[in-house]
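Reviewers of the previous submission asked for a worked example of the structure-prediction workflow described in the proposal, so we include one complete record here. The input consisted solely of the amino acid sequence. No template or homolog information was supplied to the procedure at any stage.
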Amino acid sequence: MSDKTQNILELNYKINNINNKFYEAFLPKNWNIYEICLNILFVFLLIMISILIYWDSINRKISSNSRCRKQKELYNKTKGIYTIDVKTKNKDNLFKVKYDINNNTETLECSCKKGNTNNTFSKIPIRILKTNENKYSEDLYCKCDNEYSYDNSHKDLILEGEPELIRYMNHQDTDDFFNKINYNF
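From that input alone, the workflow returned the following C-alpha cells.
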C-alpha cells in the first residue's frame, strides 16, 4: 500500500472512532424508544415554556404602551358615557355635555351652582350621535349663583374631559373621537 492510501485509511479510522464515541455519549445502548421520546418531549416542553415566557414579557410591555388598549379600557371604565365639563377660568362649573355611546344620546346639563341669576348658554357645539351630524345646541337656560357668559371661542373657558372630545368642542371638523368609537365598538 502506498503512503497516501495508508494516510486516508488512518484518517477514516479516526473519524469513525470520533463518530462512534459521540453517538455513544448521547445515545447509550440501553435506551429504548420510550426514553428517547420522553427526552424529546421534555426538550420540546422546555422550548415551549421559554417561548411563552418570552411572549408574555413582550405582551406586557406592549400592552402598557398600546393606545388601542388604553382606549378600550377607557370605554369600559366609563361604560360608554363620555362627559365634557365646561368651566370658567376660576374653575366655576357652567354646564356638562354628556355623550352616551350605548344609547346614541347626547345631553346638556347645567352644572353651575344653583342661584337666582338667569344664564343662557347658546351655540354649544354638539354631535348628534343618531345621525352623526355636527350641530349647535339650542339655548340652555340655567339658574346660577352668578352671571356667566359663554361664547363659542372658548377663550375664557376650561374644558375638561377626553382630549379628543375637547378638540371636537374647539373645532367641530375634528370628529376623530366619534369615528374611533363607532369603528371600535
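The radius of gyration is 36 Å. We consider this example representative of the routine output the project will generate in years two and three.
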